[in-house]
Design goal:
globular, nine-stranded mixed β-sheet, five-stranded mixed β-sheet, alpha/beta, 403 residues
């Protein structure tokens, strides 16, 4: 499938806000962990994600009050000088009522139809709400394919960066109308984490109808978790699934996953409720803060680690496990003992140890039916007996990520 970045500019803005000479933030300084969520009050570039359940319902469609309140908070932050990108769910949910549907459809074709109807309605509301503050919005529709191919994610970055430099608030959503079951984000929380990484954001704010992450069901007296420094802080914590509204797909699980993706790649993250948006952006003590615990990574490797659809498995011997995992080398055919699944060259595969433990994921250079004749043999031998083209590594270290 060929996908493209779709950009539809909004129009409700005074000419002064769209000045092309707006300076871009200085991103030359090295990343430094901030001590707490006060970093949000001075952040230059922030990605904010809002869920369907916060903006829409099946019976009522788009909530004018909820959407306006959110736009007010984001426009205020924007007019203070911050660059804001809004990743907004809600297109499918907004299209349900106009189509007379009483629940979120399960089949892809009806989801696509609902998204096609709802996306225009959603953008019209955002254009009006932000326009009241003199802020232009634009529509940016992305697919997972836009993060898989270098030319496409480079183009997406260039477009988003230029919109921000022009003083625009891009409203990003998955391009549900053309997405396929095989290649899609599954939930906009993950999309938001990848967008935050793509645009080199300072922070990611994930909004829903829950004010914070708790160590159990809030109705049972659970305590709020104000700060997460790493995965170990969530050991034993039961995280909830999608709520009762029936219009969302993620729930707290995908928000925590997205926050972890961001924090693990050098971006601060906050999970809180949509009603807390203004307080969150002001750096107040709301929600659950995820401190940075890793460095920024190439966007393709981030996609490979968290989004790629795995098509097969390569079983490694102990020596290859040590080489890939400990020495961070490319995978050679000599270290592979078995091939599982059906895949083509360029597909994502998992690499597992002899006991089946997944150690890495990567883009394979050969199809599944080519590999059996190569197992246990050196690249030099293969080049001599099978010809040029068979002397390459199976998975290059630049196309490999440990998991």
């Amino acid at each position: 499938m060929t996908s493209k970045t779709v950009i539809v500019p909004g129009s409700s803005v005074t000419p002064e806000r769209a000045a092309p000479d707006r300076p871009a933030p200085d991103r030359s300084a090295p990343d430094r962990p901030a001590p707490d969520r006060a970093v949000l009050s001075g952040a230059c570039r922030i990605v904010v994600k809002v869920g369907s359940s916060s903006l829409t319902s099946i019976k009522g469609g788009i909530s004018e009050e909820a959407l306006t309140d959110l736009a007010d908070a984001l426009a205020h932050k924007h007019n203070e000088g911050a660059e804001i990108i809004l990743v907004s769910s809600g297109a499918i949910a907004a299209g349900l009522a106009p189509l007379g549907l009483d629940k979120r459809p399960r089949d892809l074709a009806t989801q696509q139809a609902a998204a096609s109807v709802g996306q225009g309605l959603l953008m019209a509301r955002y254009t009006h709400a932000f326009g009241a503050h003199g802020v232009t919005v634009s529509q940016v529709l992305l697919t997972a394919d836009d993060f898989m191919r270098r030319s496409q994610h480079t183009n997406a970055f260039r477009a988003l960066n230029r919109l921000l430099n022009l003083g625009v608030v891009p409203v990003v959503n998955e391009n549900d109308t053309v997405a396929t079951h095989e290649i899609r984000f599954g939930d906009n929380d993950r999309l938001a984490a990848l967008v935050a990484h793509l645009v080199r954001a300072d922070a990611l704010v994930l909004l829903s109808d829950v004010d914070s992450l708790y160590d159990g069901p809030p109705s049972h007296g659970a305590k709020r978790i104000p700060h997460v420094t790493g995965p170990h802080d969530l050991d034993g914590v039961s995280i909830g699934s999608p709520g009762k509204a029936g219009v969302g797909t993620g729930g707290m699980v995908t928000k925590v996953e997205a926050a972890m993706i961001a924090a693990g790649s050098g971006i601060h993250a906050l999970v809180t409720s949509t009603s807390n948006a203004a307080a969150a952006l002001a750096g107040q003590d709301v929600g659950t803060w995820f401190s940075v615990n890793g460095s920024r990574k190439p966007i393709r490797l981030l996609w490979l680690a968290h989004l790629a659809s795995v098509q097969g498995t390569l079983v490694l011997d102990d020596g290859a496990v040590r080489a890939v995992r400990d020495r961070r080398t490319s995978l050679l055919p000599a270290g592979i003992t078995a091939v599982q699944g059906s895949f083509e060259a360029g597909d994502a595969v998992e690499m597992v140890s002899p006991d089946g433990t997944v150690i890495a994921r990567g883009l394979v250079n050969y199809a599944a039916d080519e590999l059996p004749q190569m197992l246990g043999r050196s690249t030099r031998e293969l080049g001599k007996t099978l010809g040029r083209g068979y002397d390459r590594v199976v998975v290059h270290v630049d196309d490999l990520v440990l998991v």
